[in-house]
Write a structure and sequence with these properties.
It comes from Lachnellula cervina. Pfam families: HATPase_c, HisKA, PAS-like, Response_reg. This is Hybrid signal transduction histidine kinase K. With 1218 residues, the chain is an alpha+beta fold. The chain has 38 helices and 34 strands. Strands 22, 23, 24, 25, 26, 27, 28 and 29 form an eight-stranded mixed sheet that branches. A six-stranded antiparallel sheet has the order 13-12-11-16-15-14. It is extended and about 125 Å long.
């Protein structure tokens, strides 16, 4: 394994690991003086030498000193080695590899100070200025005395001398990290040029170093990297990141870029840090592990790993621990895990010892090995069974052995152990009533008593209620304590050996001989520290198959032997027939081969013939033309193994690796590959260049000899690059069309739904007014109307007005959103008074506030007076639109509360406001430009407006989804007309194009505060008006008790003949499920006027609660005949509610069939179909008139009654009809 891993390393990886100036030349290239590879040390050397040392580029071929050096480097191309030569004070030597590659190595002597090395490295990272005091050579060039020696590195501990067994003493084991052994190339520069000047001249474009721990860290897209860099390392033994040594920073970069789970323990206390992949190992301990000492981070396993750390520190060698067992808390339980981990010690240049800890999760391998070992042991023990009783004994003996995957077991047999005819095993005569207990495994019998036998007198269903279903199942059944399927006696009395785990699941496993013949069954406990996943399920399936096959082997041995003999005879006949055919084919082989050669040479596709090692034995011209244009990389007589791998893209090597073994196994394959050669056609179709990757389709099969052995691979390749390009274009066009259609449908659905809801209320109110007028027809010219009827007419007129206003708001929101999307909405600031704008907006809601008995207050905050704001340049219409949207939401979600208060606050500031009182402003969208940024040059003032209500409020999850939900186009009507769903979305965009932001603070059950600010410019006062009042201005609307609110639920019409309608519908009870209170009130009054008995619910969950009180749930007696169900509702929508109703009917919890009619604003036929598939008996689309609804209700009732009558047959007439 190690040798294979070593062979997989490339030569550049070895060269890059050598800390010497090295470069490689291609002697066959033209020109051959341009390096194809350079080490980092050479790049640093060139950075310091500046223009004096240039290895590559035009300057290197023109400078005399560099020309001499490069001519020496490419001299004597046939020689295996070059004699050493000195250039710029550095000895250089060269060596040839394969008569083509010339490797030049600089034998650097002397040493550089650590400051010089750091300076050179920083020069490769940026071009920032280096202070002169950090460059010793700079001071020397100015004839100043040489710098003093740097002070000795302080000891790791601040409390005194380093102990004898400290990390400093142990670091002597790491000779590769000894500071004295570090050497570098000599630092020489032209006279009069300081080291600082040389480094400054180096361009940052030659540097490829990347340091995550650099001081000016920019926030990364990786959350774990942000967490790591934001961690308070200064509070740990390691100190702040800027104080870390170079070696530690390098190892931190390796750690954070390691794709495998890895951790690092640094310093005497082993301070812990880890990468993102390690989070899976840490489980619920993340993020608390970061920065902790090892004894504190892994307290449960600390003692076991102390010897390993000490040994690694003393010897300086790495350790590997295989398959260590851990119990990690993750996913809500203590999970059994196995890991192989390595401990690699190293020292940093400040004397600390650290340990690099790579972790490999081997849980799947260990558990699989354990299970496979158990199955192998089971197979070995029970395969020797020759009778049923012997089979049971062997099985119990194997189960008695400790196995974490089977903590306990119960074994029952069918009692057919004696005198069975193997040929009668498949007879469908077996009874499933008699079962005999064969044994218990790790079940405490004194505490749990199980009957030794179940029969008709004592049925096994008392122990396992679902026994018949499980024993007849084709596979195992998972028994859970949570759903009651696991026997209660096992749940209450069985615990693990250390009493730490409770068994909450078990497996019922039938043991069958043939398809319908059950020999017995097992109840197997499951590992409480492993989830029952797919691997566990496979293990149980393998166990089931092993038991079935072993039982069959024991009982049906004689039958199997007979079948084997018959199969052998058939095989012999097939072999003889095949031999004859092969003899005929052999006779024609030479002629077929000749024909194939002629056809292959002239075929319009690339054809090939490989041997088993991948060497090309034959290929026609089209093969080389497709694969190797110019035949440069792949000559016609190439004999190297798998040479065609070089032309395949690295991403498709996995495809080739998968298909090649299939060919070697004799399979026929056809697959697609991409080649490194690009596909470019000299044409443009549909405005796109016909270009992309080169695709080929490979069809190949195995060539076999007369014995059926694979001896070669034959196949062909076809260029399908143009077809692939066309498919990509077609796929993109299709996805764009589908997305456009989806957006169009969502928009139409939303607008249709929100327009139909108020339109339905308008139609019903108008219909009622017209119907009720007929009751006062007569011969008299003047008609006297009762005061109550006049009040109801006024109420209906106000309902129509409110619905019309709602429709206008929907149209305004849609037009505004359309302008925003088209970038056509502009801001037109004018001189205006913010107080006057807000008061005019609040006045619009006087009617709604009086109707809902709400208290409204308007407060001017001290910040407004402090800035002395009176007149500003602002767009009043856009500011008014935002405030109206927020007020509409506040009224909507407050009008049903006991405490109904709304407060509006106005403030101002000269600086951009920050979120206060829990307000969290949404981040600005870069797509919407601030249109006030360049408007005028007056002083900037930010106007802040907040709307606070005492409504239902929002919890944390609803706050997170608030603006996302409102920005979507899903139709949704909230309580009392929630609008088009665009209100808050439009408000957010309007604030942002005015240079502001919007935010929310809310708490469920307390209320909400929506706040926003806009950017304005001050302007002089327009007239001499009264000064602002000294106290906060507010308006308080005191509302008298409106009679119409007391009459919610009363009749809206006077029927012409009430007795006649009550005679027709007097016994019909209707449940209206509607979240829109206006539609709910209007429809309920109309139906009551028509003689119906009406009940109402606001959403699906309330409807289910009401249904449980009706006669459909005996012994309740509340009557109910039909349900009118809205579809779009909060809490639980109509589709979910009707699905739940039909599920209760199927399970027998509901007596009869509950008629449900969908009353919805979703008018498309597809939406109606979905509603009926969910369980609706019919659907009525808004808007509708009650006279149109009643015949549909009668029709549905008759159909349901007829359906129930057909199903019930001779059922008693006293039962509920539906």
């Amino acid at each position: 394994m190690v040798k294979n891993d070593l062979r997989s390393l490339g030569p550049f990886e070895f060269l890059a690991a050598i800390d010497l100036p090295i470069f490689v030349l291609d002697l066959h290239a033209h020109p051959n003086t341009t390096p194809i590879f350079q080490t980092v040390s050479l790049q640093k050397l060139q950075a310091i030498r500046g223009n004096q040392l240039k290895i590559g580029g035009k300057e290197a071929r023109t400078d005399p000193s560099n020309v001499a050096f490069l001519q020496w480097a490419v001299s004597s191309p046939q020689a295996s080695t070059l004699p050493s030569s000195v250039y710029w004070g550095i000895p250089w030597s060269g060596r040839n590899v394969r008569d083509r590659w010339r490797i030049i190595v600089g034998e650097v002597g002397g040493s550089l100070s650590r400051d010089d090395i750091c300076l050179a490295e920083r020069s490769c990272q940026n071009e920032t200025r280096i202070p002169p005091q950090e460059c010793p050579e700079s001071s020397q060039s100015q004839a100043q005395p040489p710098p003093q020696k740097p002070p000795k590195r302080p000891p790791l501990s601040k409390e005194g001398p380093v102990p004898q067994k400290s990390p400093r003493k142990r670091s002597t084991a790491f000779t590769s990290h000894s500071e004295d052994s570090i050497s570098a190339f000599p630092l020489q520069s032209p006279k009069g040029t300081s080291f600082e000047d040389v480094v400054r001249q180096h361009s940052a474009e030659h540097c490829t170093l990347f340091d995550i721990t650099e001081h000016e860290f920019k926030e990364s897209i990786c959350p774990h990297l942000n967490f790591f860099m934001g961690f308070d390392w200064a509070s740990t033994e390691l100190g702040a990141i800027r104080s870390w040594s170079t070696d530690l920073c390098r190892m931190v970069n390796i750690l954070l870029n390691d794709p495998r789970p890895a951790a690092m323990y640094c310093g005497e206390s082993k301070t812990m840090m880890y990468n993102e992949s390690y989070i899976l190992i840490a489980g619920e301990k993340h993020p608390g592990l970061m920065g902790k000492f090892f004894p504190e981070a892994w307290a449960e396993t600390h003692a076991e790993f102390v010897p390993a750390f000490e040994k690694a520190a003393e010897t300086g060698t790495s350790l590997m621990i295989d398959d260590a067992c851990f119990y990690i808390a993750r996913d809500g339980y203590l999970e059994e895990c196995y890991c192989s981990l390595s401990i690699i010690p190293f020292t940093t240049n400040d004397g600390r010892i650290a340990f690099y800890n790579s972790v490999f999760d081997t849980t799947k391998k260990v558990t699989m090995d354990r299970r496979m070992a158990f199955l192998l042991l089971l197979s070995q023990d029970i395969s020797s069974s020759r009778a049923a009783n012997d089979f049971w004994r062997q099985l119990l003996r194997v189960l008695q052995r400790e196995n974490a995957d089977i903590p306990f077991a119960l074994l029952y047999s069918s009692g057919w152990e004696n005198n069975e005819n193997p040929r009668e095993c498949s007879r469908p005569k077996q009874t499933l009533n008699d079962w005999v207990l064969k044994g218990l495994v790790r079940v405490p019998e004194p505490h749990i008593q199980f009957p030794s036998q179940y029969s008709t007198d004592e049925p096994i269903e008392d122990f396992l209620p679902s026994f018949q279903e499980m024993i007849n199942s084709d596979t195992h059944t998972l028994l859970l304590a949570s759903d009651g399927s696991m026997p209660e006696s096992l749940v209450q009395n069985l615990k693990s050996a250390n009493n730490a785990d409770v068994y909450e699941s078990a497996i019922f496993l039938p043991i069958r001989l043939t398809g319908d013949f059950k020999r017995g069954f097992l109840i197997l406990g499951t590992n409480p520290r492993k989830r029952f996943d797919d691997d566990y399920r496979v293990f149980i399936e393998l166990l089931s198959r092993q038991l079935a096959s072993s039982m069959a082997a024991a009982v049906l041995l004689e039958l199997e032997i007979s079948r084997s003999k018959m199969a052998a005879e058939f095989a012999t006949q097939d072999w003889n027939l095949l031999s004859k055919k092969l003899a005929i084919q052999t006779h024609e082989t030479s002629e077929v081969e000749s024909r194939f050669r002629r056809m292959a040479d002239h075929a319009p596709v690339g054809m090939f013939h490989f041997d088993l090692s991948g060497v090309v034995l034959y290929a026609n011209e089209d093969y080389y033309r497709y694969s190797f244009p110019g035949l440069i990389e792949h000559p016609l007589n190439a004999t190297s193994t798998m040479c065609w791998y070089r032309i395949i893209m690295e991403e498709d090597h996995a495809v080739m690796n998968r298909e090649w073994p299939k060919l070697l196994d004799g399979e026929k394959v056809s697959f697609e590959l991409r080649l490194k050669r690009p596909f470019v056609a000299d044409e443009i179709i549909g405005g796109e260049n016909v270009a992309g990757s080169t695709w080929i389709i490979v069809s190949a099969y195995a060539e076999k000899d007369t014995d059926g052995n694979v001896v070669g691979i034959l196949g062909c390749i076809t260029d399908i690059s143009r077809q692939k390009w066309a498919e990509g274009v077609q796929r993109r066009k299709m996805l764009e069309a589908i997305e456009w259609k989806r957006q169009q449908e969502n928009f139409i659905d939303m607008t249709s739904h929100e327009m139909r809801n108020p339109l339905s209320a308008i139609v019903q109110c108008a219909d009622w007014i017209g119907t009720s007028v007929l009751a006062f027809e007569g011969n008299s010219k003047d008609v006297l109307l009762p005061r109550e009827i006049l009040n109801e007419y006024a109420d209906a007129a106000q309902t129509i007005q409110l619905c019309a206003q709602h429709q206008k708001r929907i149209v305004d929101d849609v037009l505004t959103a359309s302008k925003l999307d088209s970038d056509l909405l502009s801001i037109a600031p004018v001189k205006a008074q913010p107080i006057a704008i807000i008061k005019s907006a609040l006045k619009m809601f006087d009617g709604e506030l009086q109707k809902s008995r709400m208290e409204l207050r308007f407060h001017i905050e001290p910040s407004y007076r402090k800035t002395s704001v009176d007149w500003v340049h602002v767009d009043p219409s856009r500011l008014l639109q935002i405030l109206i949207n927020l007020m509409t939401n506040a009224i909507k979600f407050t009008q049903t509360e006991i405490r109904r208060k709304i407060a509006v606050y106005l403030g101002a500031s000269l600086e951009r406001p920050k979120g206060v009182n829990g307000i969290q402003y949404l981040p600005r969208n870069a797509a919407y430009k601030d249109q006030t940024a360049d408007y005028r040059s007056d002083e900037v003032v930010y106007l802040s407006i907040a709307v606070n209500d005492s409504g239902i409020g929002l919890d944390e999850m609803e706050r997170d989804l608030l603006f996302k939900r409102f920005s979507q186009t899903t139709p949704r009507t909230h309580v009392e007309y929630g609008g088009s769903g665009l209100g808050l979305f439009v408000s957010r965009q309007l604030t942002e194009i005015q240079g502001g932001q919007i935010g929310v603070a809310s708490q469920a059950g307390v209320g909400s505060t929506f706040a926003f600010y806009v950017r304005t410019r001050c302007c002089p006062t327009q007239h001499n008006g009264p000064a602002l009042p000294e106290v906060a201005s507010h308006s308080h609307t005191s509302i008298l008790t409106p009679a119409r609110l007391e009459r919610i639920g009363t009749d809206l019409s006077l029927p012409a003949n009430p007795d006649e309608k009550k005679k027709t519908f007097g016994s019909m009870h209707v449940l209206i499920v509607e979240d829109n209170l206006v539609n709910q009130k209007v429809l309920s009054k109309q139906l009551r006027s028509a003689g119906y008995v009406v009940s109402v619910a606001d959403h699906g969950r309330q409807a289910l609660a009401f249904l449980r009180t009706t006669h459909f749930f005996p012994p309740n007696t509340v009557p109910l005949d039909i349900v009118l169900m809205d579809v779009e509702m909060p809490v639980m929508d109509g589709l979910a509610c009707v699905k739940k109703i039909r599920e209760l009917q199927r399970t027998g919890h509901v007596m009869g069939h509950i008629p449900v009619i969908a009353v919805t604003a979703n008018a498309r036929s597809e939406q109606i179909r979905i509603a009926k598939e969910a369980g609706m008996d019919s659907a009525v689309v808004k808007p509708f008139r009650v006279p149109e609804l009643m015949p549909e209700m009668d029709r549905v009732l008759k159909e349901v009654q007829e359906m129930v009558r057909r199903r019930s047959g001779s059922r008693s007439a006293s039962a509920p009809p539906f």
